[in-house]
Every structure is written in structure tokens, then in C-alpha cells.
Design brief:
The structure holds two protein chains of two kinds. By secondary structure, chain A is mainly beta. Chain A has one helix and seven strands; from the N terminus they run αβββββββ. Chain A has a domain of 46 residues. Chain A starts with 12 loop residues before the first helix and ends in an 11-residue tail after the last strand. In chain A, 17% of the residues are buried. Chain B has a single domain, classed as Oxidoreductase, molybdopterin-binding domain (Sulfite Oxidase, Chain A, domain 2, Alpha-Beta Complex). In chain B, the strands form two sheets. In chain B, strands 1, 4, 5, 8, 9 and 10 form a six-stranded mixed beta sheet that branches. Chain B has a five-stranded mixed beta sheet with strand order 3-2-11-6-7. The termini of chain B are far apart. The chains are: A mainly beta, B mainly beta. Chains A and B meet through strand 5 and strand 6 of A and loops of B.
Chain lengths: 95, 199
């Protein structure tokens, strides 16, 4: 019997494209280490490094790392338990 | 163990290119940092070597300074593409620190005050190729460059030369460190331009 309870990861493309296209500086994040919730724009970013390192303004633990190679990039958000992203109001009943 | 590493052959390669591929020469010493500079008082400093069995070997600052000292002059290569030739250091060879340590581990995870980590094969810490250094260019190593002490592994990209070094864990299996878990190469040989995973 085929397990129909999950879908192929390709289905994430549309929903994630919608999220990753937003202005992340307007997003809110939760620090995995200390639990502080605040705007990502308040992260302390160390850029004189092999990548960008965003640290929690409260506990200084790493919340975000972004490494850019010429043809690839790595985004590590393990230090952030969530990102809350402002989205355009979804009103399927309108119009 | 002599005062100066007997196996060290000088700062320039006598043949071949002076710089690894993709690197440019710099005369100053850029400061790179992934976080705030930790302040480590010497009276609280220690270096901890732990093995895969849980055995630990510890050195305080006076104990480190009391070990045989070496004075390597080496070229260093940062993955952000600058290279600096003929840098002068003083410190203790990892051969000295590993002497008498019973291990079958093949990998090392270096850890630093402030939380930084980096991984490399244990063999690359041996053979007169790696030091815990406390002196740069004749003076105490400044905090911005990793003082009181940093690792120096000049045959690999400089992110492996962990600033503010606190210890080394010897491991049976390779465990990627801070930059290695974010896309950078597990080995990082500048002459083979191993910058990123898969290079």
C-alpha cells in the first residue's frame, strides 16, 4: 500500500519561494539559545569573516550563518527556532 | 625537541608558485572574527587535550610556557584570498603536547574560548606542522589575532588555525566545526584550493 500521507519535497518550492522572497530584515526570530524573540534587524552581524555570522543581541550566540561561494550559498538557521515573516494579508474570501 | 623546529625549511618554497591559486599577497594582517573577542585572563587560561576514551591532559599558562618552545616562520593563507608570507611565531609544537598521549583517533576537533570549533585530521597536527602559539612577530599575541594563544596550522587555510584556542578533542570520526558545517571544506588545503565542500 502506498503511503499517501506525505508529498514530495518539490511541493515546497512555491510556499518557500513566497517566504524567501520577503524582506528578512522585517522578520522576527527566536534565539534557540536564550529564547529571546526580536527583529532579525537587531542581530549583531560579524562580516569580517569567511561568511556572515548573525548573533543574538541578548546572549551573543549564533542565530544565523550565511556562506556565499561563487556558485553556491549555505544558510544555517539552526540557532533560530523560528522566523516570523510578515506576509501580505491572505483573504481568500475577498474579491 | 630543540628550541627551533629542526624540520622547518624556511619561509619560501624554493620552486613553484609563491602563492596558492586564487590568493593575493598582503603586507598587513587582516583581522577576521566570527564573534566578539573573548577576554581570557592568563591565570585562568588552560589548554585541554582529550582523547576518544575520555582521558584528559591539561596545561596551565605557566606549564605551556615551560614546555620546549619553537619559532616557526611560515606563510599563511586565508580562505578570503589574502596570503601573508614569512610570519614569525613562537609557541609549542603539537608534537610536544601529543607526546605520550595514547590514542587511536584519526580526527581532531579544535575548540576555542568563545565557542569556535574547527576540525582536521589528527595527522595534520603532527610532524612539526602545527603549534599552539602565543607570540607573533616578537611580541605577545594580541587578542584580536587570537591571544593569549591560538593554533597555527599554516599548511591549511587559516580558519583552521583557531584563535583563542582552548583545547583539542581527539575523535574516532570526523566532526565538522564552525565553518565546516556552513559550507567550508573539511580539509582546506590552499594549494588544492579546497575552499568549499566538494572542492
Amino acid at each position: 500500500m502506498t503511503d499517501m500521507s506525505y508529498l514530495d519535497g518539490n511541493m515546497l518550492d512555491g510556499p518557500l519561494r513566497e517566504v524567501f522572497a520577503v524582506d528578512l530584515s522585517a522578520a522576527t526570530g527566536r534565539c534557540q539559545s536564550c529564547g529571546m524573540v526580536g527583529p532579525m534587524a537587531r542581530l549583531r552581524v560579524y562580516s569580517h569573516a569567511p561568511g556572515l555570522v548573525g548573533r543574538c543581541p541578548s546572549c551573543a550566540e549564533v542565530m544565523l550563518r550565511l556562506v556565499r561561494a561563487p556558485d553556491r550559498a549555505w544558510l544555517d538557521l539552526r540557532g533560530a527556532t523560528f522566523l516570523e515573516v510578515p506576509m501580505p494579508l491572505d483573504r481568500p474570501w475577498a474579491g | 625537541m630543540g628550541i627551533v623546529s629542526p624540520g622547518f625549511q624556511g619561509r619560501r618554497r624554493t620552486s613553484g608558485p609563491a602563492l596558492p591559486p586564487g590568493q593575493y599577497l598582503t603586507e598587513d594582517f587582516p583581522v577576521l572574527s566570527a564573534g566578539p573577542t573573548p577576554k581570557v585572563p592568563l591565570d585562568g587560561w588552560e589548554f585541554v587535550l582529550s582523547t576518544e576514551t575520555g582521558a584528559e591532559f591539561r596545561w596551565t599558562w605557566p606549564e605551556l610556557i615551560g614546555l620546549p618552545q619553537e619559532a616557526p616562520t611560515v606563510d599563511i593563507h586565508c580562505v578570503t584570498r589574502w596570503s601573508k608570507l614569512g610570519t614569525r611565531w613562537q609557541g609549542v609544537s603539537l608534537d610536544t603536547l601529543l607526546d605520550g598521549v595514547d590514542t587511536t583517533a584519526r580526527y581532531a576537533l579544535v575548540h576555542s574560548y568563545g565557542g569556535y570549533t574547527t576540525n582536521l585530521p589528527l595527522d595534520d597536527l603532527r610532524g612539526g606542522r602545527a603549534w599552539v602559539v602565543h607570540t607573533y612577530d616578537g611580541g605577545p599575541l594580541s587578542a584580536e589575532h587570537g591571544g593569549p594563544a591560538r593554533l597555527l596550522v599554516p599548511h591549511l587555510y587559516f580558519w583552521k588555525s583557531a584563535k583563542w584556542v582552548h583545547g583539542v578533542r581527539l575523535l574516532v570520526d570526523d566532526r565538522p566545526g564552525f565553518w565546516e558545517t556552513a559550507g567550508y571544506h573539511d580539509y582546506g588545503d590552499p594549494w588544492r584550493e579546497q575552499r568549499y565542500q566538494g572542492d
